[in-house]
Design goal:
Helices cover about 40% and strands about 25% of the residues. It is built from 9 helices and 10 strands. A hairpin with a 2-residue loop joins strand 7 and strand 8. It is elongated, with a radius of gyration of 24 Å.
Length: about 240
């Protein structure tokens, strides 16, 4: 048990979304709000404002609000960022005697940039809007992440794999680390393995594409996490 438990209210998990929270409040208030006013309410905007004022937060038990002392929380805002990792690109020439595929990089890989981009996009044809978000297993990530979309980018004369992440709310450092781990698994053994096992055929060549090049993908998120740790330490020192 905890102190002043009567000040808290456990709400349905669906009230995490601003619009759902607004509709829930309207249902509870009932006749307090005249019908001629209710029809003009913009539920999402109103829900965002009320959730901030009420201090609505998510817990493992559901959404909780303290009616006496609003719980401080970060603003309900979306976040978007990219992760980058090296690609493994190999070409197999059907007319050559060698059975070993040739690794491609630099200009050789760039020559197939558009073909590789189309192959990656085609692999996402079932859900272009959300990408691979449905592949996430972590419950919190599934709730917070709207989309994770693999893409092909050119950086400093090399082809790189990138992952566009669209989150409904800002992810914590721990959540970003969990996302990195899940992305590495998806890139190596799930979607990425299927992509690699279905090469692109160009004339008498087969091009194999892997999103798991380098040690554990060498994802740039590791550097991003370290930057956040340093920033938190600096903010802490400034507030001492």
């Amino acid at each position: 048990m905890f102190e002043n438990y009567e000040d808290y209210e456990l709400l349905p998990r669906k009230t995490k979304e601003p619009e759902s929270y607004a509709r829930y409040v309207l249902e509870q208030k009932g006749p307090e709000i005249p019908e001629n006013i209710r029809r003009y309410i913009r539920h999402k905007e109103w829900g965002q404002k009320m959730s901030m004022e009420a201090g609505l937060i998510e817990t493992s038990y559901g959404m909780i609000v303290n009616h006496m002392r609003p719980i401080r929380r970060e603003e309900w805002k979306e976040e978007e960022f990219c992760l980058y990792n090296p690609l493994s690109i190999f070409a197999y020439d059907k007319e050559q005697d060698s059975i070993a595929p040739k690794p491609l990089s630099g200009k050789e890989a760039l020559a197939f940039k558009e073909v590789i981009k189309r192959k990656v996009e085609y692999s996402l044809k079932e859900n272009m809007e959300h990408g691979l978000a449905d592949h996430l297993r972590n419950r919190i990530l599934r709730q917070k992440v709207r989309a994770i979309i693999p893409k092909i980018k050119e950086q400093q004369g090399e082809l790189k794999g990138s992952l566009l992440v669209k989150a409904k709310t800002a992810l914590t450092m721990v959540e970003k680390q969990a996302l990195l781990e899940e992305w590495e698994e998806i890139a190596r053994f799930g979607w990425g393995e299927q992509l690699y096992e279905n090469p692109v055929s160009i004339r008498k060549r087969e091009i194999y594409i892997g999103f798991f090049g380098g040690e554990k993908g060498e994802s740039s998120l590791k550097g991003l996490l370290e930057e956040e740790r340093q920033k938190e330490e600096e903010d802490f020192k400034m507030n001492m």
